[in-house]
Design a protein that fits this description.
The complex is a heterodimer of chains A (718) and B (707). With 718 residues, chain A is α/β, with parallel strands linked by helices. Helices cover 32% and strands 14% of the residues of chain A. In chain A, helix 7 packs across helix 8, helix 15 packs across helix 22 and helix 19 runs antiparallel to helix 20. Classes of the chains: A alpha/beta (718), B alpha+beta (707).
């Protein structure tokens, strides 16, 4: 599916140019996991087109972004469920994501969003009933091609000839199939033309590709599947699409990735039996614009999917293959033009899939760790069972001491592979508590996780992609810019600036940034008082940085020459990195929130919605949200005092200057984290759940406000 | 706001606890969103806008029961052979309060039709399709039941133990019985006799006297095992509101769907549900097996329904950095405060499955949430214990299984109440397990390895009961050799282990060195003799031992004094456990006042000097002495010892004959001499039993003075 992402990106940029717009007026961004330099989230006020795979985008819309730090999840969630239009292409390939996208659309309407959110589903072979769900009972309006579009070049395409012939491979054993395919297709391939072979699994595609290699023809040979790193995938795709063909022609061996809208054509298309809707897509890659009068479709019939060939049926339902096969038998000897196919109706099995319900979404709003300690798995709402994948990247880990502090991966390094392939390997996952890479427990890798592998363990080959059965040599390492390890509970990278920034200056900057962002919120998009709450939260968000523990940490970074000046002030940011907290996991935003509880609405200006202000303040680093919980393994203070995220019951926070006036000194209490609260005030969780469940706020609008405050903070820290 | 004490809502039995959750949920969702509940003095208290009488009117007239339907179960009322009276009564009730229920019935019937089901689905695929279809199309209210009864995962389904196997208890379908109780409680069914609706409700909520009706509350109220009763379980009598409210309460006990997706263990699929730890309750009834444990939270501050829901759905119980999985883990989490703050205790229930697949929920006590830092002593022990349990249940002989179960129990008791007694029991259980493993684990096989030594200090401080037995066991366990001569450690002699190239392993060859079937005294004497043999075999000149902890002479005296009431079995049991600890850097000493005034028998004392000498003249025993003593040749050894002392100019006052008179048995001496005395103690004995080296000079001096 990624090849489509790249192609769509190029088309979107070309369209933007035709409109005479530049990247400032309309940004086009690809979202692929891994930290990107220019982040799509940083300019919510700008028009932009964000392109990504189902995995990447839908996981973010569910607050569990794949390849994204857990502390960043709420930002993406807030932005992707506010003021944006979703377009899903190729609905028939979406699996559970189809239902999830429809339910999300219904739930957004039920729970309310900031700004309009609409969804458009695009498909050549759409099953409208499949878009009807319990919370979105109406199918919605339908856009189709007008008759005028069917004349001219499109009309020619619709009647493009694709002669169907059957290659009987039913006698071949599974291990012989790739070689048999290579022989049959190699014989039929004509020089100076492109031949495309589509297989149903990556494994079979790799085997077939190797079989072609073994034949040693004069053709150019390319392999396309989803398990390549971006640079290698881009190179493979460019070669496959290259209109200049070598004299011997080109053979492209591909998986389903080619089904989804890749604009490429062939004189000969060979394919296994696939569900009918997939076949229609595959056939679209043959004689696409009627340029080959002799174009052929070679049906590679592996036999009866209910019988001997059953073992080769996955990932598809044998019933679907059987229905398709019956239809193909009818087509043999005739042309499978789009027009012919349109007249055929092949019923596909509709499997019951996991449906995202309101209570599931409300659960997902909470980003605290799962009770099993693992990150929550949203794969069931996104991918069919057999496509569950993890993201891997390779590093040279010969020096064992370098393992823990490996920098976060960048997008170029990432490749998605089946979760089952990784279970047996020595892999490292990032431990967000300690901020280091740790060896994973075998068999406990779960979909959506990002894991690091050693280049010496093999598994990946630049030509074959992820192929653990064939790639045994060291994996070529991509040049990685020096970076930091991923975020941990205690990390505070944004507390480092180019110069020393005082707390009052930073708070004022944040208010200005929040006001600029608040301007983009249209009247009526958010409840009354929400914008004022956002502003107040910006003015107070870093109050907790006045805590002696935080000031001490900053002071520790001061040069000798700066010491006198630094000691005299209260700072938000140091000019130097490397500060270390004496109290492990210390979170200043928790101090800010507890101070606002202790101060009970002082300063008063702008404090219309105390619960909202406190929630936004606490959540501005994505660590303290619906509940206040100690970090796993966090111990009480030496004197036995309760300690949570480095904050202790009875800590004193000095008064400080804020854009809303001076705050007095206050004593922090952790009573808010008790079940039932302190007796006089409700507990933190009760108040936060109240905001989430409020009819005029709800999870989507609350997360949007959360995102806006965080973006304002980023800008004030820039 | 009115505060109402609900005497019918208590933490025990299970039905009463669940009922309490049900009351809070229903009142908060349907009457007063601000309603809050707390536990106080053994019962629940409800704070809401409704006065007592208004609450009764609310439940009888306005309460909309949550739809509870199990069309995947036989007996659910959906199939021809089922009793469908209750379902019919609900379906034909016109009141708006059943609207959601009616819709859910319609969706269920449509789903059954679509799958062509006229009887309960038998194939797993069809059942899954039905469940997925219902979860896709039922109303938000109706899927609460489904989520509580069945956990749907990508690869199948599992059943939270609270609701049996998907909402049934054997042949008892909870949904159908709930519908029946709703019909009765709300007066939908044609009732014979007087109208008891108010009476039942007040009985359920306030524990007011109420006439019961025929009916069963299944395992929610089944506390005793009916397995042994020959007639089985007869239809009992029950209050219909009890079941209605308890089922409403069960709906609060479902883990968030988003949370369980990553998990596979059935026990972990519901909040506060743990794998069974066979401790703290008798499970001796044959034909019963434990399914799981429920750890139901109790709190003391006013808590609202959404907050409680959030805590239950999070179900956080954490030990160190791990999520609690077993009952033992939960006990540890309660001691390490690894649970949401404000939970003051857990009511523990063991869900047992009896023959015939019906369950019972046994109240297994209450575990307070309180900081018990001593519980950290279990941190590393638990990994070993887990391997032992696993090995015992997979490959082990029955005896090993018993030992493993005892270990499990001792760990659980320690986690719940880590006092000295629990610590000693745990040490004994650990020792017994190590010993049992040594005879059943082949080192080449994949069984557990010997326990790795933990620092002894904290254990000693906690477990010391100031008894002579403990002091002796600890001193014995502290034996080590400063020169690392290659002699086995005490634990190796006691258990049968050896230190090989890759660390310590169980060693079948070592087993026979010190026969474990012999009496503790015989074993200790044999250990002593064996140790001398090994030391001389290793070419060591000194055969005496270095102890981490010297034993006060008064305590050692207990060994050789025939009148002392010393429990040598207990010394051995404790030593088996204590010897597995690491005694380096131990500051603990036996209490000084212990056995004060008691002195070693003269024969014992003199032999002790011959074994170790004095500060000025250190000695070491002859190789054969211990063997001779153990064989009863006390007199010969005494004679030899006196000779030896004289040879180094230490002049014993008593003669061998004097000493032999009234000397303890050779066996006792062989054991007693295993324990080295401190220099100070030896100095005291030397002053009593030896002529001072310059005694002659002293004598002359004294005589001169007298003259």
């Amino acid at each position: 599916m990624r090849s489509l992402v790249e192609q769509t990106y190029r088309v979107a940029v070309a369209l933007r140019e035709r409109l005479g717009l530049d990247g400032d007026a309309l940004a086009v961004r690809v979202l692929m996991g891994g930290e990107a330099a220019a982040d799509w989230r940083e300019r919510p006020e700008a028009e932009q087109i964000v392109i990504g795979t189902i995995d990447m985008l839908l996981s973010r819309a569910l607050n569990r972004g794949y390849g994204e730090s857990r502390f960043q999840w709420p930002v993406s969630f807030g932005l992707l469920n506010a003021d944006c239009r979703w377009v899903f292409d190729e609905v028939q390939l979406m699996g559970p994501a189809r239902v999830t996208s429809a339910q999300l659309d219904g739930l957004r309407r039920m729970l309310g969003t900031a700004g309009r959110c609409e969804t458009i589903w695009a498909s050549a072979t759409v099953d409208l009933e499949g878009l009807r769900t319990v919370d979105r009972p109406e199918v919605g309006s339908r856009l189709g091609l007008p008759a005028s579009d069917l004349a001219g070049p499109l009309g020619e395409r619709l009647h493009a000839r694709k002669l169907v012939e059957r290659v009987d491979l039913s006698a071949a054993k599974a291990v012989q199939v790739p070689a048999a395919i290579a022989r049959a297709v190699g014989d039929a391939h004509a020089p100076e033309t492109r031949t495309i072979v589509v297989l149903n699994t990556v494994e079979r595609a790799i085997e077939t590709f190797r079989a072609f290699r073994g034949l040693g023809g004069s053709w150019g040979l390319e392999l396309l599947h989803s398990r390549f790193r971006p640079p290698e995938r881009a190179a493979g795709l460019a070669a496959a699409l290259d209109p200049e063909l070598p004299a011997g022609g080109r053979i492209v061996v591909s998986t389903q990735v080619i089904e989804a809208g890749v604009d490429v054509s062939s004189a000969l298309l060979a394919s296994e039996t696939a569900p009918f809707s997939s076949l229609v897509q595959r056939l679209g890659r043959c004689n696409r614009s009627a340029e080959h009068p002799e174009a052929r479709f070679m049906w590679l019939d592996l036999g009866d999917p209910r019988g001997a060939a059953g073992s080769m049926a996955p990932p598809y339902d044998p019933a679907d293959l059987e229905a398709s096969r019956a239809a193909l038998f009818e087509l043999v000897g005739s042309s499978a033009s789009p027009e012919t196919l349109r007249g055929m109706s092949v019923v596909e099995v509709r499997t019951e899939m996991a449906v995202l319900r309101r209570r599931d979404l409300l659960d997902l709003f909470d980003t605290g760790p799962d009770l099993s300690g693992l990150d929550v798995d949203v794969a069931q709402f996104i991918r069919p069972d057999d496509e569950r994948s993890v993201t891997v990247f390779f590093r040279d880990l010969t020096d064992e001491r370098s393992i823990e502090m490996q920098p976060a991966p960048v997008r170029e390094e990432l490749v998605q592979v089946p979760v089952g392939d990784v279970g047996k390997l020595t892999a490292y996952a990032h431990d967000y508590v300690e901020g280091v890479w740790r060896r994973t427990v075998r068999g406990e890798t779960h979909p959506g996780q990002t894991v690091m592998l050693d280049v010496h363990a093999g598994g990946y080959d630049a030509g074959l992609g992820w192929a653990p059965r064939h790639a045994h040599g060291p994996v070529p390492v991509l040049a990685v810019a020096d970076g930091r390890p991923p975020e941990a509970i205690g990390s505070d990278d944004r507390s480092v600036a180019r110069r020393w920034v005082s707390l009052s200056e930073h708070l004022a900057d944040a208010v200005a940034a929040a006001e600029a962002l608040a301007d983009l919120v249209a009247e009526g998009d958010l409840p009354a008082g929400a914008v004022a709450g956002l502003r107040a939260a910006a003015a107070l968000h870093d109050l907790g940085k006045a805590h002696p523990a935080f000031q001490e940490m900053l002071l520790g970074t001061a040069l000798e020459s700066e010491r006198a000046v630094v000691e005299a002030g209260v700072w938000a940011k140091s000019a130097h990195a490397g500060g270390r907290h004496v109290r492990r996991h210390f979170r200043h935003e928790l101090v800010s929130a507890l101070a606002l509880i202790a101060l009970d609405g002082v300063p008063r200006d702008g404090f219309v919605d105390g619960d909202l202000v406190r929630y936004l303040v606490a959540s501005h680093h994505g660590r303290v949200r619906l509940s206040i919980r100690s970090a796993p393994g966090e111990q009480p203070a030496a004197d036995g005092a309760a300690r949570v995220l480095g904050v202790q019951d009875g800590d004193v926070l000095p008064g400080c200057e804020t854009p809303l006036g001076a705050t007095p000194e206050c004593v922090l209490s952790l009573a808010a984290m008790e079940l039932g609260g302190s007796g006089t005030a409700p507990s933190w969780t009760a108040a936060a759940c109240g905001l989430r469940d409020r009819a005029d706020l709800g999870p989507f609008r609350l997360a949007y406000l959360e995102a806006l405050l965080r973006i304002a903070d980023w800008r004030a820290s820039a | 706001m009115p505060e109402l004490r609900l005497d019918g809502c208590r933490p025990r039995p299970l039905i009463a606890y669940l009922k309490t959750l049900g009351v809070l949920r229903v009142v908060a969702e349907q009457a007063d969103p601000g309603a809050a509940l707390r536990w106080r003095a053994g019962a629940a208290e409800l704070r809401c806008a409704l006065e007592r009488d208004e609450l009764v009117v609310f439940f009888l007239e306005r309460y909309r029961p949550t739809p509870v339907l199990s069309p995947w179960n036989g007996g659910s009322g959906f199939f021809p052979n089922d009793d469908s009276n209750a379902l019919d009564a609900i379906e034909s009730a016109g009141a708006a309060r059943f609207g959601v229920w009616h819709a859910a019935i319609a969706v269920a019937r449509a789903a059954l039709d679509e799958l062509g089901l006229v009887e309960k689905p038998s194939s797993e695929t069809v059942k899954l399709a039905l469940l997925r279809g219902l979860r896709a199309w039922w109303d938000d209210e109706a899927i609460r039941w489904l989520d509580a009864a069945v956990v749907l995962r990508a690869d199948g389904r599992s059943f939270p133990p609270l609701l049996g196997s998907g909402g049934n208890d054997g042949r008892y379908d909870i949904a159908n019985n709930y519908a029946q109780s709703v019909a009765r409680a709300l007066g939908l069914a044609v009732a014979r006799g007087p109208d008891r609706r108010v009476e039942w409700l007040e009985g359920a909520l306030l524990d007011a006297p109420a006439t019961m009706v025929q009916g069963s509350l299944a395992h929610f109220d089944r506390q005793k095992s009916p397995v042994n009763t020959p007639e089985g379980e007869a239809d009992g009598f029950a209050n219909p509101w009890d079941l209605v409210l308890a089922v409403e309460g069960c709906l609060a006990m479902s883990a968030g769907a988003a949370r369980w997706a990553a998990r596979s263990a059935a026990a972990a699929s519901a909040p506060f549900t743990a794998a069974r730890t066979a401790a703290g309750y008798g499970s001796a009834v044959p034909g019963e097996k434990g399914r799981a444990e429920l750890w139901l939270p109790v709190w003391e501050a006013w808590t609202t329904a959404p907050e409680l829901d959030s805590v239950l759905r999070e179900g956080r119980a954490q030990v160190g950095r791990e999520a609690a999985r077993s009952g033992l883990d939960f006990a540890r989490a309660a001691a390490e405060l690894g649970v949401a703050r404000g939970i003051s205790a857990f009511e523990r229930y063991a869900v047992l499955e009896r023959a015939g697949q019906a369950n019972l929920a046994l109240a297994a006590g209450r575990v307070e949430v309180r900081s018990r830092p001593e519980v950290h002593l279990l941190d590393r022990l638990q990994h070993w214990a887990a391997r032992v349990t696993h090995y015992a249940s997979a490959d082990g002989p029955a005896s090993l299984r018993d030992v493993a179960r005892a270990l499990d129990r001792a760990m659980f008791d320690f986690a719940s109440r880590p006092d000295g007694l629990a610590a000693r029991r745990l040490l004994e259980a650990v020792g017994a397990a190590e010993s049992a493993l040594a005879v059943s684990v082949e080192s080449a096989g994949g069984g557990p390895r010997p326990l790795r030594a933990e620092p002894a200090q904290a254990w000693l401080e906690l477990a010391d009961d100031a008894s002579a037995e403990f002091a002796l066991a600890a001193c014995l366990a502290s034996l080590h050799d400063k020169d690392r001569s290659g002699c086995p450690a005490v634990r190796d002699y006691l258990h049968g282990t050896t230190v090989g190239e890759h660390g310590r392993v169980y060693d079948p060859a070592r087993r026979s060195f010190v026969a474990r079937s012999a009496s503790p005294l015989r074993r200790l004497a044999a250990l002593h003799a064996r140790r001398h043999l090994d030391a001389s075999g290793a070419g060591r000149e000194r055969l005496s031992f270095d102890f981490g902890i010297p034993c006060p002479r008064g305590v050692v005296a207990m060994l050789s004094a025939p009148d002392a009431s010393l429990d040598s079995e207990r010394v051995m049991r404790l030593a088996l456990g204590l010897s597995l600890l690491d005694f380096r850097a131990v500051a603990w000493r036996p209490r000084a006042d212990m056995a004060a005034g008691r002195e070693p028998q003269p024969a014992h004392a003199l032999l002790a000097l011959a074994f170790a000498g004095t500060a000025e003249v250190p000695l070491t025993p002859r190789p054969g002495w211990v063997t001779l003593l153990a064989a009863g040749h006390t007199r010969a050894v005494l004679a030899d010892a006196l000779l030896r002392l004289r040879m180094v100019d230490l002049q014993p006052i008593p003669s061998a004959e004097d000493l032999a008179l009234g000397a303890p048995s050779g066996l006792l001496l062989a054991v007693a001499l295993l324990f080295a005395l401190s220099r100070g103690d030896r100095a005291v004995l030397a002053r009593r039993l030896l002529l001072v080296a310059d005694a002659a000079a002293l004598l002359t001096k004294t005589q001169g003075a007298l003259a």
